[in-house]
From TrEMBL:
Organism: Mesorhizobium atlanticum
Protein name per Swiss-Prot or TrEMBL: Glycine/betaine ABC transporter substrate-binding protein
Lineage, opening ranks: Bacteria, Pseudomonadati, Pseudomonadota, Alphaproteobacteria, Hyphomicrobiales
UniProt KW Kinase keyword: no
Any one GO MF annotation of this record: transmembrane transporter activity
Signal peptide bounds: 1-27
Domain of life: Bacteria
Length: 313
């Protein structure tokens, strides 16, 4: 989940070339192939899909891969000290203060876009347009009847806004405050809790406004509207929600240690529609993540083979 900053590549590339000149060709291409590449596994299923596709393809290149559970902000500490090797689906609107600090310190490297077509903002079940006439315009949320419908014992007299889990980071509470909206942002417990509440609200026609993002399988199964957002008090990530970029971030020593893996990850892309299909299989149909990813890889060699072949070259 999701500003483009200058990349710092020269040191890693230079060292990779030095290694290539001083070692046998195969070893130089792969680098430290006996040391596992540790990929960050973030909380949402889309990131699981992207990460496991990257992981299985890295294994085809000849690498060992480990998947390490990591929080959205804490991952940058791991990437900075090398205890994590790479994170392939970093939503650039939720990177906090630690990302620019570790990037400026040259502890991490941003190696480019994942090319994942994204959407993020405030959503509501479509029936809410009768509860809060005027939606999707955000001013409809401030009308007394709408506030009353969304109020809960936990938030009264304010309305309740269902937010991301606390450790994901979010701009919702800031935007609510910026625009003096009578809402209280209440963090959800997890991605699963967000989806469960959306589905329950749809089924029971319970009023709900919440933070959400796409791609996500839930958007294919629930009829939702997207709020036309309030004006930004400041043109910053903390005060605005815009379609987020999704980048790939590696430990600063990654390119020198695993040159072919570095080239592969720079080329690696993820299609949002394909990702949603795999998320649906995992989250709703209960299929095994690795099996779903393997099936995609088996059917899509024409997509990924250029990435792998280019890395070998």
């Amino acid at each position: 989940m999701p500003n483009t900053i200058n990349r710092v590549r020269c040191a890693g590339i230079g060292l990779a070339l030095m290694l290539a000149a001083s070692a046998p060709v195969a070893a130089a291409d792969l680098g430290a192939k006996d040391e596992p590449i540790k990929l960050a596994m973030l909380e949402w299923t889309g990131a699981h899909v992207s990460t496991h596709i990257a992981g299985q393809l890295l294994e085809k290149l000849g690498y060992k891969v480990e998947y390490v559970t990591a929080g959205n902000f804490p991952q940058f500490s791991g990437l900075a000290d090398g205890s994590l090797s790479a994170s392939v689906e970093v939503w650039m609107n939720n990177v906090g203060d630690i990302y620019p600090k570790t990037l400026a310190a040259k502890q991490i490297e941003d190696i480019g876009k994942l090319d994942l077509k994204t959407r993020e903002g405030w959503i509501y079940p479509k029936f809410m347009e009768t509860v809060c006439p005027g939606l999707p315009d955000w001013t409809a949320l401030n009308k007394p009847d709408c506030v009353k419908a969304l109020s809960t014992p936990e938030t009264a007299p304010n309305a309740r806004f269902l937010d991301y889990p606390a450790d994901w980071g979010s701009r919702a509470a800031t935007i609510i405050a910026d625009n003096n909206m009578p809402y209280t942002a209440v963090p959800s417990g997890s991605e699963g809790a967000l989806v469960a509440e959306l589905e329950a609200a749809e089924a029971a026609k319970t009023p709900l406004v919440m933070m959400f993002w796409g791609p996500h399988y839930a958007l294919a199964e629930n009829d939702v509207g997207w709020v036309t957002m309030p004006p930004c008090k400041e043109q910053t990530n903390e005060h605005c929600i815009t379609p987020p970029d999704v980048d790939k971030i590696v430990w600063s020593g990654f390119g020198a240690k695993w040159p072919a893996a570095y080239a592969f990850l720079k080329a690696f892309k993820m299609d949002a529609g394909e990702q949603e299909k795999m998320m649906l299989a995992v989250d709703k149909k209960g299929e095994d993540l690795d099996a779903v990813v393997k099936a995609w890889i088996d059917k899509n060699e024409a997509v990924w083979k250029p990435w792998v072949d280019g890395a070998k070259g």
